[in-house]
Specification:
CATH architecture of the largest domain: Alpha-Beta Barrel
Number of strands: 21
Structural class: alpha/beta
Largest sheet: 6 strands, antiparallel
Helix content: 40-55%
Oligomer: single chain
Number of helices: 31
CATH superfamily of the largest domain: Glycoside hydrolase/deacetylase
Mean pLDDT: 89
CATH class of the largest domain: Alpha Beta
Strand content: 5-15%
Strand order of the largest sheet: 16-17-18-19-20-21
Length: 894
């Protein structure tokens, strides 16, 4: 640090006399830190990607082979960190580590919500990790909260700051079952008002970049204070926490503590080969370790000061996705580092909250006015063309008009919300702050409790819908400020398009509750945001070409339901996205190549509880030609008349009369082009099914009739004519798929031992694989991999539930069956992903086997020795098949 007296005030969070603090700055727990502590923080986050009206993430081709980027990063980072592998020299698993137990982390609420719906196992491992860390660190867990949907808080109005922070806290409490001690700010963006809100809401500490500090000094000494030291160039000492004082808040506190991560090391984690190995990572961390200066006799040192002299914190932070997604295999490096490398050096892995409880700050800090970790111009990256996030030839002049358009929309919606919400809710803004509880629980009871607490009078059904529309309008108004929309250098990227979709949904809801038409002026303002792509020209083009076509209405949902009903049986009640559809009437009639369906359905949207009864008539003319019309009839009698007229016209077998009758009775028209891309793909697959079946039958006939000819070609090593080879490829692939589908049925509805039930199917697949190998056929069986993986997992699960040293023969047979399935995958050229199988087996070895062995020894120590030895040999054999070092795992648990 450069040390100098500061004669001019720094425009920042104002320094405040710590002697006026409501708490003693030197107060600390009975635990005293000593030595080197390492805190590795992972900021795990994905922007909300759900379609605003449907509540699901649409298919994203750029994430292929996965459905979308959330799913891709789940399998590349979030799940691998929950089950991180430590391997031996042969590539076998010796230990499975939950990395979340050992690192500080925050996971955005919108991402946690998605994880809870899509991978409950990973979600639960994350929650369990925090509990383990709490138990290990005197109640101070690894998890910290995050402002709700990654808004740049310094650019938000005060009311939105409060809601974002309260929603982040409430979401954390809902998931982790405790109050958060720290909070991660989007892009670590901070200003005076943000800190004041954090303090008032009870947040004890935050994590910032070293470049965000302006000056610091010691406090609490016998003679008062040290001189201010300027640290504007990012040279603040990150090995200790700091205290930032502000004017006293309503809750009585006047400060918040701040950890600064080590900038150079954190940067190296993301941008060079620091994470290539655990030794290399630990060596890089070791470069920050300083010599200790311990003088416990110093008269002017407080206990907290002595604590700081006894210990130091190596603090690093990076995007959590660095571990596995940005850097493949880095989650393994992280696991080996925290489990082996750091403890072997005598360094303790800890969390910020735990370290703070042992070593409270003895230094105070003043921050620069408005800053963030990923913009050298304060927070200009999210409001103007500052150059950050560019690097190419594209301009960022669209950033300012985009923010201005959204600010205009937000400010138009505020008085609308206050006026309409004020007639339904006691305090509309207090209701908005509590609305997160409704988001976290879709139960009727939660909704009733919410309205009981906030309604200005007992609300009718329609008034409830109105209130929920207003609250959803406000939710989408905040979602449209998600920081990712400005992060890169083009407005039409998926991130920019997504925040415009949230804006469109807010406009749609505003128009529904008030009749105010806001869209045209909003689009005009977007026209001032120049795109780098000629196809869009401006933000208005992005809105018209990428946002408007994706909007969903109740009528469009029913059109999807109606069209799909031509191919799948209609249920009394079914779920389509976030909509519940209840059948009230349904009629279907084929006539030659034509098919007619007429029906009436009640559709309810989950978020606003809006319910409408809509009727439909859909006519399939063959191929891709559909005619679907929707009508909201005033009562059931009018629907019955329309249904009768359409059926009578259809019975004449006249296409013209059928279409005319539908046009006369129903109003809104929908075609396949009005459905989403995924919806169209589903229907196209169903349409192709019969055609493909006929083609497959033809190929099989060619294959059968020319079987001996094919054998001759291969026997004499003569090039096979392409048409014959294609017939072999397709026929054998279809046979394999038919067996796979039968296997899937066996798995879904098991009736006894899975390996016994499926042995015949497995033999069939082995025969097909052998035949394919003989004819050099290229098998394409995309459905085979997940089915075989599931069969192996369920078979192993069944086996381990009954496995014991006395059942040697049964266990041996089961292991042989599992080995056979794994070999079958290789014969079918499938790259089976056996990570879930490994995890199941590892858990058995680590937790259950020792109990079983201990029980055997207790019952009959001598007689059990041979059984145990034989049992262990079988388990080692199974470990080989699963690429798992059984001996190493058992050594850890015995």
């Amino acid at each position: 640090m450069s040390k100098s007296q500061s004669n001019s005030a720094v425009e920042s969070i104002s320094a405040f006399d710590p002697r006026q603090s409501s708490e003693n700055p030197s107060q600390h727990s009975s635990s005293i830190a000593a030595g080197v502590y390492v805190c590795i923080h992972g900021h795990f986050y994905q922007p909300p990607r759900e379609d605003p009206a449907r509540g699901v993430v649409s298919k994203q081709p750029s994430a292929s082979p996965f459905h979308d980027w959330n799913e891709r990063i789940l399998y590349e980072s979030y799940r691998p960190n929950a089950f991180a592998r430590i391997l031996n020299g042969d590539g076998e698993v010796t230990r499975i580590v939950n990395n979340y137990e050992h690192i500080s982390f925050n996971i955005g609420p919108t991402l946690m919500s998605w994880l809870a719906r899509h991978d409950l196992e990973t979600y639960r491992r994350i929650l369990a990790a925090d509990k383990v860390s709490c138990d290990r660190n005197q109640g101070h867990g690894n998890a910290i909260a995050q402002a709700y949907n990654h808004i740049i808080l310094p650019l938000a109005n005060h009311r939105d700051k409060v809601t974002q922070i309260r929603w982040g806290i409430a979401d954390f409490q809902h998931r982790f079952g405790r109050d958060p001690e720290g909070m991660w700010l989007a892009e670590t963006a901070v200003d005076n008002d943000t800190l004041a809100v954090l303090i008032n809401e009870g947040i004890q500490f935050i994590i910032l970049a070293p470049s965000q500090a302006a000056q610091c000094r010691r406090f609490g000494l016998a003679d008062g204070f040290d001189e201010w030291q300027l640290v504007e160039n990012g040279d603040i000492d990150p090995t200790q926490p700091y205290r930032c004082f502000v004017p006293a808040q309503p809750n009585g506190r006047n400060y918040i503590d701040i950890f600064f991560y080590d900038g150079p090391i954190s940067g190296d984690m993301g941008f060079d080969d620091t994470l290539r190995s655990s030794q290399q990572f630990a060596n890089r961390l070791g470069q920050a370790v300083r010599s200790f200066e311990i003088d416990t006799e110093a008269a002017d040192w407080t206990e907290a000061e002595k604590c700081q002299r006894r210990s130091q914190l190596i603090s690093v932070a990076t995007d959590g996705e660095t571990f596995g997604h940005h850097r493949g295999g880095a989650e393994k490096t992280l696991a080996h580092t925290v489990i082996n490398e750091l403890p072997n050096r005598g360094w303790q892995v800890t969390s910020y909250a735990h370290y703070l409880s042992m070593c409270p700050p003895t230094w105070e800090v003043q921050l620069k006015p408005v800053t963030a970790w990923s913009c050298s111009h304060g927070v200009d990256r999210w409001q103007r063309d500052c150059g950050c996030g560019g690097g190419g030839a594209w301009q960022q002049q669209w950033r300012a008009p985009l923010r201005q358009a959204l600010d205009w929309l937000r400010d138009r919606l505020i008085p609308l919300y206050e006026k309409l919400g004020g007639s339904l809710l006691q305090d509309p803004w207090a209701a908005r702050n509590d609305y997160v509880n409704v988001l976290n629980s879709s139960s009727t009871r939660t909704l009733d409790q919410f309205f009981a607490a906030h309604q200005s009078h007992p609300l009718t059904y329609r008034e409830r819908v109105e209130a929920l529309r207003l609250l959803e309008m406000q939710r989408h108004t905040m979602l449209m400020y998600t920081s990712c929309g400005w992060f890169f250098d083009e407005i039409s990227r998926p991130e920019g398009t997504q925040i415009l979709r949230y804006a469109a949904r807010a406009i749609e809801l505003a128009e529904a509750v008030s009749g105010n038409m806001l869209e045209n002026e909003f689009v005009q303002r977007l026209a001032q945001a120049p795109s780098n792509i000629d196809y869009f020209k401006t933000g208005a083009g992005v809105y018209q070409k990428q946002v408007k076509p994706s909007q969903t209405s109740l009528e469009r949902i029913v059109a999807h339901y109606a069209t799909g009903s031509l191919f799948t049986p209609v249920k009394q009640e079914e779920q389509l996205y976030c909509y519940t559809l209840r059948k009230q009437d349904y009629y279907q009639q084929p006539l030659g190549a034509l098919t007619l369906a007429v029906g009436r359905v009640e559709v309810t949207t989950a978020m606003t509880q809006e319910t409408q009864i809509l009727s439909f008539a859909v006519l399939h003319l063959g191929g891709w030609d559909f005619q679907c019309k929707i009508q909201a009839f005033a009562h059931k009698g009018l629907y019955a008349q329309a249904k009768k007229a359409v059926i009578e016209a259809f019975s004449t077998a006249s296409i013209a009369q059928s279409i005319l009758a539908i046009d006369q009775q129903f109003s809104q028209t929908y075609t396949l082009q009005d459905l989403s891309q995924e919806e169209r793909q589903q229907i196209m697959q169903q349409l192709n099914h019969e055609t493909l079946q006929r083609l497959n039958q033809l190929y099989e006939q060619v294959y059968r009739e020319n079987y001996s000819v094919l054998m001759a070609f291969h026997r004499d090593r003569i090039t096979v004519p392409q048409s014959l080879q294609v017939a072999a490829d397709i026929t054998l692939s279809q046979r394999a798929l038919a067996v796979i589908h039968a296997l899937e049925q066996n798995i879904t509805e098991p009736d006894g031992n899975l390996l016994d039930i499926t042995v015949g199917r497995i033999a069939e697949l082995e025969g097909i694989a052998t035949e394919a190998h003989h004819f050099c056929a290229s098998l394409k069986v995309p459905d085979a991999q997940p089915v075989l993986e599931r069969l192996i997992w369920q078979s192993l699960s069944q086996t381990l539930q009954t496995a014991s040293p006395e059942q040697y023969l049964e266990l041996e047979a089961a292991i042989e069956g599992i080995e056979r399935l794994i070999k079958l995958g290789a014969k079918l050229n499938l790259e089976l992903a056996l990570y879930r199988v490994q995890e199941l087996y590892y858990d058995y070895l680590a937790q259950q086997m020792n109990d079983a062995i201990a029980g055997q020894k207790t019952a009959s120590p001598r007689a059990a020795d041979h059984q145990i030895s034989s049992h262990k040999a079988l388990l080692v054999r199974l470990g080989w098949a699963l690429a798992l070092d059984t001996e190493a795992v058992l050594a850890q648990t015995t």
